[in-house]
Design brief:
The protein is α+β, with helices and mostly antiparallel strands. It has helices at about 45-50, 70-85, 105-115, 130-135, 180-195, 200-210, 240-265, 265-275, 290-295, 310-320, 330-335, and strands at about 5-10, 15-20, 25-30, 30-35, 40, 55-60, 65, 65-70, 95-100, 125-130, 150-155, 160-165, 165-175, 195, 220-225, 230-240, 275-280, 300.
Length: about 325
């Protein structure tokens, strides 16, 4: 019997649900290239090389801004990962792939072709809108005539959606997320301390002492390059600095949430006020982000464990439950209909 896989191709992490083992495979969505076009490493091994590799090895993220930027290498990476974890039982399988909503049909077709035109010779390839998979993964019944609002903050994108009756009523894809916060921290620390830090250090500051509200009192020692002397030095950074660096970017997300709420029909708004806003995505792990959104909207915000896995958990239910199977669609029927 053919196996079924649910695939969430995130900018930062690649998550794959394997129906046969009922497990989720999670690897960094990173590749390292040697000799310009030869795959040297992928996943967590390639991410370990990020900002540390010599010029002969190029480390990159094949998904940028929610869409596929390096088609051939991401196809090879997925194939090798599946072959390794599934012990060769990949050919003839079915795939359900999560796709962002506000992207073009051509960009959606790239997600479809990634599997349909691969050496894995799939039995079928279906697509599922990311916000709907998100809501299903949160344990919500998206088939009901009830308004659900999901804010999915990823590494490169933030998707704000209102769902009802298994479809999207409103959706807005912002082209910034957790990576923008990291960049804000890097530029703010350079301006304030004449200190150059790397992306991984900025992410560590965001996750360990960062807060969406100015009420956290923590410190972290980081190492960076002094702009004046050019030498590496240690500096203690406190939470207030990280907050100041992130607040403008977070304010942009708040404005977009308010804009979607203003466009939401009144009956659905009533449902959202009763059930609250659902916050997911790997970029949503910033402390007190839920409290910030509550302060801005006056609506309760629901969080969950492992917010970066909600989409792939939703895909696992779309794969296994008859109740949700209709939420996935074929790109071929869309094109030739």
């Amino acid at each position: 019997m053919a196996n079924v896989y649910g695939v969430d191709l995130g900018t930062c992490n690649l998550k794959i649900y394997n129906k046969h083992t009922n497990k989720i495979i999670k690897e960094k969505n990173t590749i390292s290239i040697i000799n310009k076009n030869q795959l040297y490493a992928y996943g967590d091994n390639a991410y370990a090389m990020y900002e540390k590799a010599p010029d002969t090895i190029q480390v990159s993220f094949p998904v940028v801004g929610g869409v596929i930027a390096d088609y051939n290498n991401v196809q090879i990476m997925i194939q090798e990962l599946l072959e390794k974890t599934s012990k060769g039982h990949v050919r003839g399988s079915e795939f359900i792939v999560a796709v962002p909503t506000d992207i073009t049909e051509v960009e959606k077709k790239a997600f479809f072709d990634l599997f349909f035109k691969s050496k894995m010779k799939p039995k079928s390839v279906l697509l599922c809108d990311k916000p709907i998979a998100d809501a299903v993964g949160l344990g919500l019944d998206v088939n009901q005539p009830t308004g659900i609002m999901v804010v999915d903050m990823g590494a490169d994108t933030t998707e704000i959606s209102v769902i009802s009756l298994g479809g999207l009523v409103l959706s807005d894809l912002l082209h910034f997320g957790g990576n923008r916060l990291d960049e804000s921290i890097i530029s703010y620390i350079k301006k304030s301390f004449n200190l150059v830090i790397g992306q991984k250090t900025a992410m560590q500051l965001k996750e360990e002492i960062g807060s969406a509200l100015p009420d956290m009192d923590r410190e972290l020692t980081v190492v960076g390059l002094d702009v004046v002397s050019g030498l590496p030095i240690e500096v203690r950074i406190d939470s207030s600095i990280v907050y100041e660096a992130m607040k403008d970017s977070l304010a942009s997300i708040c404005s977009s949430i308010k804009m979607i709420l203003e466009k939401t029909p009144p009956e659905l708004s009533r449902d959202i006020i009763h059930s609250g806003i659902y916050l997911t995505g790997g970029g949503s792990k910033v402390a007190n982000l839920d409290k910030l959104f509550t302060d801005i909207t006056n609506i309760a915000v629901n969080t969950c464990e492992d917010p970066d896995e909600t989409v792939v958990r939703g895909l696992s239910l779309v794969v296994t439950s008859d109740k949700f199977k209709h939420l996935a669609y074929s790109m071929r029927t869309r094109i030739f209909r």
